[in-house]
Amino acid sequence: MHNFKELKVWREGIELVKEVYQLTNTFPSEEKFGLTAQMNRSAVSIPSNIAEGAGRGSSDKDFVHFLRISYGSSCELETQLIVSKELNFIEDTSFAQVEKRLHVIQKMIYKLIKSMGS
After folding, report:
1. How far, rounded to the nearest angstrom, does the alpha carbon of residue 21 sit from its chain's CA centroid?
2. 8 Å CB contact between 102 and 77
3. Are 38 and 80 in contact (CB under 8 A)?
4. Coil/strand/helix, residue 23
5. In whole angstroms, how far apart are CA 102 and each of 15, 56, 83?
6. What are φ and ψ of residue 89, in 5° steps?
7. Are 34 and 17 spatial neighbours (Cβ–Cβ below 8 Å)?
8. Is pTM, for the whole model, over 0.90?
9. In the structure, what pLDDT confidence band is assigned to residue 1 with cuts at 50, 70 and 90?
10. Among the listed residues 86, 93, 105, the one whose alpha carbon sits nearest the alpha carbon of residue 23
11. Which among 39, 96, 99, 109 would be 20 to 30 A from 86, CA to CA?
12. How far apart are CA 37 and CA 16, in angstroms?
C-alpha cells in the first residue's frame, strides 16, 4: 500500500487542480457546463486516480493501472488547455505556467510507472 499523501506527484496534482480552477474561473459564463467543467474534471482526475490506485493497496500492477488513467487525464487536460488558448480564453503566460506544471506531472507519472516495472 502506498500513502498517496506522501507522493510528490499527488501533491503537484493538487496544486495543478488549484491552478486550473483559478484559470477556468475567468472563462466566459457560457462555458460553465462546457470546457470549464471538462477541464476541472480532468484536473481533479489526475491526483484522484493516483490516490485511488495507492489506496487500493492490492498490487503494483493495479497501482500502475490507475497511474495510466491519471496520465490519460493529464493528456486530456493538455488538449483542453490548447483548445482554450486557441479560443483566446487563456493568455499565453497563464497557458505556459499551467502547461509547465502539467508537463512536470506527466514526467513524474511516467517515471513512477517505469520504476514499478511497467
Report:
1. 12
2. yes
3. yes
4. helix
5. 10, 25, 15
6. -85, -20
7. no
8. yes
9. low
10. 93
11. 109
12. 15
Nearest 5°: CA angle at 26, between 108 and 21?
Answer: 35
Residues near 95 by beta carbon (within 8 Å), at least 6 away in sequence: 81, 84, 85
Locate all alpha helices (DSSP H) within 32-59, ordered by sequence: 35-56
Q: Cα dihedral sign for 86, 72, 18, 25?
A: positive
Spatial neighbors of 85 by CB under 8 A, at least 6 apart, are 92, 95
Alpha helices in 7-91 (DSSP H): 8-24, 35-56, 60-86
Tell me 59's DSSP state: -
User: Could you give the domains of the chain?
Assistant: 4-115 (1.20.1440.60)
Q: Using CA atoms, how far apart are residues 48 and 69, in angstroms rounded to an integer?
A: 10
| pLDDT at residue number 2 | 67
| Residue 19, C-alpha cell as written in the block | 491552478
C-alpha cell at 65: 493501472
Average pLDDT, the chain: 94
